[in-house]
Amino acid sequence: MTAYNVVRFRVKPGRDQEFIDLHRKANADFKGLRNGALVKTGNQTYCLVGEWDSFDNIVAARPSMVGMLDSFRDMLEDLGNGLGVTDPVSGETVLQLKTARAKASAKPKKKAAAKAMRKPAKKKKSAKKKVAKRRRR
Fold first, then answer.
1. pTM
2. Strands (E), the chain
3. Residue 115 domain-assigned?
4. Residue 101 lies in a domain
5. Contact present, 56 and 38 (Cβ < 8 Å)
6. How far does Cα 25 stand from its chain's mean position?
7. Mean pLDDT over residues 100-124, rounded?
8. What range does the domain containing 53 cover?
């Protein structure tokens, strides 16, 4: 079952670009990681969102992810409230939302299939033929 992890960070002043560049160059080749995104959520604040094949893949990758965190921990500010420099959460998907775009893209397929079952439309006469026919009258 698909799972996600989300980690919130606050970067020290003046280190944003360094933080982004480090993530751009990072080797995030973890087993089961489908894709990930670094999202800027505010002034010096970011969330890293990962989509995984399963929650077990997240659990198995945690030691490597902590190792990656250790490589840029000095760029981060403490989030306060006893959190430290990250605020991580993760879990399995309980509902996959259907978007209007996904629903709309499914409809044309049905129309296309129905259209293919119909008889071919008659060809319309070209404009040149219509003009020539009028001249003959």
1. 0.70
2. 3-10, 33-42, 45-52, 87-92
3. no
4. no
5. no
6. 19
7. 65
8. 3-92
Total number of domains in the chain: 1
CATH (domain of 73): 3.30.70.100
At 17-73, the pLDDT tens digits run 999 999 999 888 999 999 999 999 999 999 999 999 999 999 999 999 999 999 999
Region class of 81: left (phi > 0), else alpha (psi between -120 and 50), else beta:
left
Please state, for a pLDDT cut of 70, what percent of the chain lies above it: 77
Q: Within the chain, what is the greatest distance between any pair of CA atoms?
A: 92
Separation between Cα atoms, residue 137 and residue 126, nearest integer Å: 17
pLDDT of residue 104: 75
Is 39 among the domain residues?
yes
Is residue 117 a part of any domain in this protein? no
Q: 86 phi and psi, to 5 degrees?
A: -135, 160
Which residue in this structure is represented by tokens 């605020």? Answer: 87
